[in-house]
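Category: protein sequence paired with discrete backbone structure
Discipline: computational structural biology
Format: plain text, a pair of labelled lines
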Amino acid sequence: MDWDKLRIFHAVAEAGSFTHAGEALNLSQSAVSRQISALEESLNVPLFHRHARGLILTEQGELLYRTARDVFAKLAMTEGLLSETKDRPRGPLKVTTTVAFGSTWLIPHIREFLDLYPEIQLSVVVDDSELDLSMREADIAIRMSAPRQADLIQRHLVTAHFHIYATAEYLKRHGTPQRPEDLDDHLLITYGEELRAPIPQVNWLVDLGATPEKPRQAILQVNSIYAIYRAALIGLGIAALPDYLAVQSSELVRVLPEIEGPPIEVYFVYPEELRSSKRISVFRDFLIRKVNETHLS
């Protein structure tokens, strides 16, 4: 298979059009189209469905694209490893974590990291769904549970603790619960669809002190821990929040302070093939130091 044609095919599949791929490759639209036609002819299969709104991969095209994407991702990773020196880590580093942790704890520390390692081009993806590290969707993941994939290296980073919070203004209007059973008479904010949550047992507040005869209904269900925090902050109701998030605001008060939710184990995760990467090791060591300095645990 011709390498140049494969490179052009990958660019077209990513861009979804000959024109946009040509712009990225500095080639004319007609040159790109000819190369794709030649590749299809050599393989004797159609790779794209062509229509007025753009290009759609065929079944065979999808198969080739998955392989090409993996090849180019591994090449990019290798290029990054080759560009590193012993004393000066450099090159791209893509990190993914949840919206709440990334937005409120990780991002505020990024400037210090980049001041220490200015030759690292850092990219942070905040997403409550898990990106696939084996498919090189990211180099590092900071996850709220242990990874299930056997080919990933994991390092326990910290234990995040959950408590119950509300604003003083809410408690003034609705009263302060003295027992878990009192939550029956309060407005609760929950995650909603628990199977899609980035952490296990996210809706433990709904069951705390409840009985089957009197199930609770949340006033708001929202699929984001950060959004739950924002809803609690405007006095909408009572919520279970991680302490690292709740301490961002002096307006939140801990409710039923003796009760703690299920602890969340936070892991630093990366693929086996990046074990020797200096970018990975310096970012890991930086995070461990910041966790200890900020008393996140």
